[in-house]
Amino acid sequence: MDDHYDVVIAGAGPAGAQCARDVAARGYDVVVLETEAEDEFPAQSNKSTGGTFPSMMAAFGIPDDVVMQFTDEVVLESPNDFYVQDQPGAVLEFADFKRFLVADSQEKGADYIWDARVTAPLTEGGELVGVTYNGDEEVRGEVIVDATGPSAPLAKKLGVSNLERRNQAIGIEYEFEGVNLDADGHADLADAMMLRLDHDLAPGGYSWIFHTGDDTAKVGLCYIQNESYQRYATADRTIDGYLDYWVGKDPRLQDATRLEGKQHRGSAHIQPPTSLSTDSFMAIGDTVPTIDPLWGEGIHKCMKSARSAAIVADHALTGEVNTSAEKLSIYDKLWHQDVAPNVNKRLLMTKLLYLAPNGRYDQLMNDLRSAAKNTLAEANEGNKRAIASLLHLRDVPTLARLAKLHYSG
Ligand SMILES: Cc1cc2nc3c(=O)[nH]c(=O)nc-3n(C[C@H](O)[C@H](O)[C@H](O)COP(=O)(O)OP(=O)(O)OC[C@H]3O[C@@H](n4cnc5c(N)ncnc54)[C@H](O)[C@@H]3O)c2cc1C
After folding, report:
1. CB of 47 shorter than 6 A to ligand 1
2. CA 40, CA 174: separation in Å to the nearest integer?
């Protein structure tokens, strides 16, 4: 271990470990500090469903052996209807995926310090020179990266991240066996990732069933405590209570049992970033936050942000070292251009979708069936014509509520 590195990264999630892979591959000295112990990793941080798309696997060289199930379709479900779209996907074994990223970055030369809880930026003469961890331990570097997800100890203290509690989405899921994937009146969920819009089951959010092979699936839900949550939530029902409620009610889950120890939970913030970098510092992944607000696609986005930060670190450390805020602000540009383009438009679409009432979701499935084949994909990309084609007169009250929320901040 050195005591001075080119790049110091806090957090070994998809963002931090990917950034270490890229930086180490360019020949820089990089260290990752991870709060969890190596032999249990990932324990608390094994939090994701791991639904993603082949584009991510190809772009980042992810091997097939971290995939639990390749899927062919994405199913959108409303309380009384569904819509099926051909869309290849992959459900990852998230723990294996995280361990692969760590092992691969180590092979490329990255150091890891385990059991290392990063607590604060280390400054000298007002300049950022490293991080402190586990109380008074220190490690120094030229470029410091916060990739700790929502805990963001460095980004918060450096004024880069302003994650607000009211924007926090929480999620929970269990792995089940004995799932009836082809129940009457529902889409066939074999080889599919299903997302369900239904305020009865996930008020102000969505729930999901992702097939993981044979009769097993990841079953979960997430929501943000938005206006829909205030309107539809049942008093005193926790997020675990909502999952129990769904399991007790859905015919597909009647004979399903939870797999021991296969439980994941976590949170992410649904808000635009205030800033992304400052002198000698960049924040990546859900620290910023980078997760796509509409469907919670966090893995690919966070890894893209990691790659952008690695490119900028390389740029700053090449030739005469220059890690000034101005130099590192190239990362902000790349983030807005390549990682999360149209972030404000997507946040508006997210509010519009999750403010809509249940009846509107049934109508949406119907509209999607009769719309041109690419409408959902185009609307998802923020195409105004595609979005307009899915809007109705009956959306006026939702749009009015949205405008009110928007203008009242
Ligand atoms: C229930 C659930 C389901 C999800 N499903 C999907 C999905 O299907 N598809 C998808 O694309 N995304 C999904 N996501 C989102 C995705 O998991 C996240 O966007 C992604 O993991 C963020 O990566 P990250 O590296 O930024 O942060 P994290 O994954 O949060 O990793 C942060 C790392 O930093 C470590 N750490 C934290 N604090 C410290 C500290 N102080 N010092 C040192 N280390 C620290 C943690 O232990 C962890 O290893 C889901 C999230 C949840 C909660």
Report:
1. yes
2. 19
Do 6 and 317 form a contact (C-beta atoms < 8 A)?
A: yes
Written as one letter, the residue type at 370 is S
* Residue 201 in tokens: 């089951």
Calpha distance 183→253 (Å, rounded): 10
Residue 170 near residue 223 (C-beta atoms within 8 A): yes
What one-letter code names the amino acid at 364? L
Of 4, 36, 26, 29, the residue nearest 13 (C-alpha): 36
pTM: 0.92
Phi, psi of 331 (to 5 degrees): -60, -45
Q: Which of 47, 219, 335 has the most ligand 1 atoms within 8 A of CB, as the residue to mutate?
A: 47
Q: CB neighbours (10 Å) of residue 2?
A: 11
Q: Can you give the length of the chain in residues? A: 409
Amino acid at 256: A
131 CB contacts (<8 Å, ≥6 apart)? Answer: 8, 10, 33, 118, 119, 120, 121, 122, 138, 139, 144, 154
Q: Work out the widest C-alpha separation in the chain, in whole angstroms.
A: 68
**Mind giving me the DSSP string for 19-56?**
HHHHHHHTT--EEEE-SS-GGG-SSTT-----EE-HHH
Mutate to test the pocket of ligand 1, among 18, 57, 148 (most ligand atoms within 8 A of CB): 148
pLDDT tens for the chain, 409 residues long, are 667 999 999 999 999 999 999 999 999 999 999 999 999 999 988 887 888 888 899 999 999 999 999 999 999 999 999 999 998 999 999 999 999 999 999 999 999 999 999 999 999 999 999 999 999 999 999 999 999 999 999 999 999 988 888 888 899 999 999 999 999 999 999 999 999 999 999 999 999 999 999 999 999 999 988 788 888 999 899 999 999 999 999 999 999 999 998 999 988 888 888 899 999 999 999 999 888 877 778 899 999 999 999 999 999 999 999 999 999 999 999 999 999 888 887 787 788 788 888 988 998 888 888 877 777 767 766 676 666 666 665 666 665 555 554 444 4
Nearest CA, atom 26, ligand 1: 285
Q: Which domains does the chain have, with CATH numbers?
A: 4-49+95-163+271-339 (3.50.50.60), 166-268 (3.30.9.10), 344-407 (no CATH)
Q: Is the CB of 204 under 6 A from ligand 1?
A: no
